[in-house]
Structure formats: structure tokens, C-alpha cells
Amino acid sequence: APLIAIVACLGLSVDLATNPKTKSELDKLSPDDADAILSYISKKTDYLRTSRPTAVNLFNALDELTEKMTEAASASANGDPKREKI
Predict the structure, then answer these.
(1) Cα(81)–Cα(4) distance, rounded to whole angstroms?
(2) CA-CA distances (angstroms) from residue 21 to 26, 48, 86?
(3) Taking a C-beta distance cutoff of 8 angstroms, is the pair 58, 49 a contact?
(4) Vertex 25, ends 22 and 31: CA angle to 5°?
(5) What is the residue-wise DSSP string for 6-46?
(6) In this predicted model, what pLDDT tens digit does every residue of 3-41 receive, in sequence order?
(7) Measured between alpha carbons, how far is 2 from 7 in angstroms, rounded to an integer?
(8) What letters, b where the CB count within 10 A reaches 16 and e where it falls short, cover 2-21?
(9) What average pLDDT does the structure give for the chain?
């Protein structure tokens, strides 16, 4: 069961970093609009949740990932766009 969560998080990461369609959709968002970026990623995590509705480890991992992305978006750092922090 933990492997499902690991693969889902890795798959999401690969999708966000390499999928041309995903990258194009993200490029349409302002790099400093953390709410829009988080909303976009949230739609993807919601889809992953529907793939295994009884996978508690998957839900926990996605909740933790969302929490970390939200923290990263609100953290002030050396002027990097929020998209890069998330």
C-alpha cells in the first residue's frame, strides 16, 4: 500500500516537470500566482485520489504533499517565483 502513494507522488512530479501538455498549462499561469498553481495541482491530486478511493496511504501522502507545497508557496525566499518554490 505505501508503494501506491510513492508511485502516485513520483508520477505527479514527473507529470508536472516533463509532460508537455501540463507544462503548457502551467506556463499559462503567472509564476507568482500561488493560488492558481496550487489549484491546478490540486485538481491533479483530486484525480489521483479517485484512482484508489480506499488507499489511505495515498490520501495521507497527497495531504502531506499539499501541505508542503502550501508552506513553500507562503515562505518568503530569495525572490524566486512562487512556482519554483512549489
Answers:
(1) 31
(2) 9, 18, 19
(3) yes
(4) 110
(5) HHHHHHHHHHHHH-HHHHHHHHTS-TT-HHHHHHHHHHHHH
(6) 999 999 999 999 999 999 999 999 999 988 889 999 999
(7) 9
(8) eebbeebbeebeeebeeeee
(9) 90
Answer for the pair 39, 46: CB distance below 8 angstroms, yes or no: no
pTM: 0.84
First to last CA, the chain: 26
Q: Of how many residues is the chain composed? A: 86
| Cβ within 8 Å of residue 36, ≥6 positions away | 29, 30
Give the type of residue at 14.
V
